[in-house]
Design goal:
Blueprint: H1 21-27, E1 32-37, E2 42-50, E3 56-65, E4 68-78, E5 83-88
Antiparallel strand pairs: 1-2, 1-5, 2-3, 3-4
């Protein structure tokens, strides 16, 4: 019985390389992300760091409720049990300059 994912059809890896969730999270550190909470609130900013519990530290953070900007924070910490998902942001974060 094989446990490797490299030979699974539809694994989606480019060139046969399998990317784990841990690899993805390491690769997006320092990049713009969207963090969606269980409550439906989105936080957009630069991913500073995260740990094994999905606790997240962000910089240049903006809070969006129902798609509308509600607040801006310099740095923010989000407790991991509140996180629904983390996604890379397609837009660049602007700091009003």
């Amino acid at each position: 019985m094989s446990t490797g994912g490299a030979d699974k059809p539809g694994s989606g890896g480019a060139g046969g390389a399998v990317k784990t969730p841990s690899d993805f999270l390491k690769s997006i550190r320092g990049r713009p992300v969207v963090v969606k909470l269980n409550s439906g609130v989105d936080y957009r900013g630069i991913l500073a760091c995260l740990d094994g519990y999905m606790n997240i530290a962000m910089e240049q953070t903006e809070e969006y409720v129902n798609g509308q900007l509600k607040n801006k924070y310099g740095d923010a910490f989000i407790r991991g049990n509140n996180v629904l998902y983390i996604s890379t942001s397609k837009r660049t974060i602007t700091d009003g300059a």
